[in-house]
Structures are given as C-alpha cells and as structure tokens.
Amino acid sequence: MGPRDHFATRLGFVLAAAGSAVGLGNIWKFPFMAGQNGGGAFLILYVAFVLTIGLSVMLSEYAIGRAGQRNPVGAFRVLKGGAWPAVGALGVIAGFVILSFYSVVGGWTLAYAIKSVSGALASNDPKVLGAAFGAFIAEPRGVIAFHTAFMAMTLFIVAGGVQGGIERASRVLMPALAILVVVLAVRSVTLEGASKGIAFFLTPDFSRVTWGTVNAALGQAFFSLSLGMGTMMTYASYLDKQVNLPKTAAQVTLLDTGFAVVAGFMILPAVFAFGFDPQAGPGLTFITLPAVFAQMPAGPLFAFLFFALLAIAALTSAVSIIEPVVSYLIDERGVSRRAATWGAGAVTWALGVPSALSLGPWKDVTLGGKGILDAVDYLASNIMLPVGGILITLFIGWSIADRAKEEAQSDGVHPFALANVWIFICRFVAPAAVAWVLIGGL
Ligand code: PHE
After folding, report:
1. Coil/strand/helix, residue 110
2. How many angstroms is it from 134 CA to the middle of ligand 1?
3. 23 within ligand 1 shell (Cβ under 6 A)
4. What's the average model confidence in pLDDT over 99-122?
C-alpha cells in the first residue's frame, strides 16, 4: 500500500490487521512458549494481558495512526512533537530486529512445506523427527537459502504494492488455515494419551509461575497482537474516519487469541501423546506436527497444505513488520518505496543470518544465556515491544487524552461507552503493570 492510500472497506482493514496479527506468533511461538512456561498458568496470564493491556494498546495505536495519518515517527510529531517521535523511531528499530529472526522461521515453514511432499517427515517417532529437524537446522546453506527466499517474497509484496492481491488471497487462505488448524486440533486431542497434554494446557499450576513466566506471557501478548512497534499504527494511518476503532480492535484481538488457543490444542496434546518434550523450544511445532500428520489419512497432503498456508500467514505478518520502516523512509526521508523496501530488507536479511545459524553451527553461541535466535526474539518481544507499549499508552493517557477520546469515537459517530476506562488504563494501569513486569523480569 502506497503512502496515504486508504483501505476501501472496514473489512479490508480488519483482514489486513488480522493478517498482521495471525502468523508465526500464534502457531509456532505460542505453543512452544506455553510448553516452556508451565502450560495452563501461561495461558491464563496471556489471556489476561491480552484482554486488558493488549486491547488498550491496540486501540491506542489505532487512534494515533488514524489521527496522525502518517508513519509512526511522523504521527507522534504532528500530534505532539517534542521527544515523542522517538517512540516511533524505537518501533522502526524493533521492526528490523523482529523481521530478522521472523524471516528465518518463515524460511523453516517454506522448507517444511517442501519436505512434507517429499515424504521426508513421514514418521511419528520423536527421535526420528527430532533428528530430521536437527539435521535440517544444522545445514546452514539450506536454512539461509530459505531465509533468503522468505525475505525476498516479503520484499516483493511490499515493494510492488501488490497488497491488493495478497489481501484478496488471504480472504480465502486465512479461513482455510483456520479450518485446518481446527481439524488438526481435533486430531491431536483425540490421540491416545492426549489427555495429559490437555490437562497441562488447561490446568494452571501457579506454584511454577516465576517472573520469567509472567514476562513471557506479556511479551507473547505484544508479539502476537503486533503491538508496541507501530505496525497497527501504520495500518490505521491508512484508515478513514468512519471505521469504528474499538469494535475493530476487539474483533482483531479475539481472532488472534482464538487462533493461538486452538494452536495450543493442536500441538500440546500431541506433544504428550507421542512423548515429545514440551520444553523443546523453537523446534517444538516442527517436530510435533509431522507426527500428527503421520496419524492422518492423506497425511502428506495435510502437511503440505498446513505448512504452505502457515508460510502465507507468516508473509502477511512479515509485510506488516517492515511496513512501518518503509513508510518512515518514504514519508520522512523522501526515499522511493522500492529503494526503501530493498534497502531495509537487505539490512534485515543480514541481521537474520546469525539467527539462521543459531540452531545449527552456532548453537553454542549464547547471549544472556540464550541462543541467538531466542535472544533476539527476547530482546524484541519482551523488552522493546513492552517499552513501546508503555510509551504509547502514556502518550494517549497524558499527552493527547481528549483528542484520543474523540478519535476513538470517530468524532461522535461511534460512541464508545468505555472511553474513560480506556484512558484510565492508559494513564495508570497499563504503564504501571507493564513496567512492573519488565522490572521484575530483569
Ligand atoms: N503478530 C505477528 C505474529 O504473531 C508478528 C508481528 C509482531 C507482526 C510485531 C507485526 C509486529 O506472527
């Protein structure tokens, strides 16, 4: 979408925003985070953060973006100026960081789409599937080639401004992915031995909750909803006044959370049924799902469809991660869309290479006790996005509260009964709660 293009319909915007939100965060990251962080307790914390802080930040980003009609840096500048545009700049930087590792995992999904047709994954033995993933990830040329392919696809979409095409395509493909995830979840929960996994996912064991768990759930809420870095702000800058922002925020949030929860039911029961390790981390989905496919008629076909659709869902998210960067370079630096896209993309690609190597040849390199991909993800999701969220809500609550209330109600067109509650959350609750979790986590 070019600068100041506008979404033709509210549905178009909902699809784009949901396309941004639903991606690897829901299907790859959520299940393995839940697996690493005690299951049920993580789920409850995650949902609580989504419904309070997540919804409020989402509405805040919509209001800033639509009122500002600009990229994140420009929006803060026209609405208030001072030091505020730095918040937008933080978001632009987060965009580089997130897309760098996101594209690596996007590449894994492309590779797995191909592998599933070749029959390379037809097994339900944890050892075999773990070894297959391990072998794939250990071979840098393949991983980097798929990282490159995923990044190139993203950049073609962003540079060519063919979002029209991808938006229309996702109208069909996203529901298809949703159906597939539900089918797989049904298969997974009906496996013999699945009940242990269901109990793990639904029974909160608060005795195992640490600051790390709380911090992980908060970071996951920001990451999954695409919040804290100006993505939703940028998309909302392409919106007209008529759109009902609170209603839209609620719909996008529900859709995203629904996807994540069903993905939990797709992975975790199977993890327990087949005797995988729920703590396996970033490889969990890639190791577990092939075992589920192996238990289904036409398994390879399901596997191919699933990984291909997941790659497409990841693409619509990747596009939204780089869009704030690109719109910043266009609006504020006078760069052409083409040059902005390929320039930013090249830098992001290079940043991603260490993540690509980090589960293979560089698996012993650690930053703060984590592998590189995990560490970069942690820096972005658990620090940069929440800090962005604090600043965004402070801006709404203290700097432009009256203007924000009008914007959220489309200047009186869509009365919003909870406007004052939202402002209160932005003033006190969200910044304090997020800061508390951040500080506790460190
Ligand atoms: N929400 C996306 C996902 O869940 C990732 C994302 C993060 C997109 C931040 C935009 C901004 O896959």
Report:
1. helix
2. 26
3. yes
4. 93
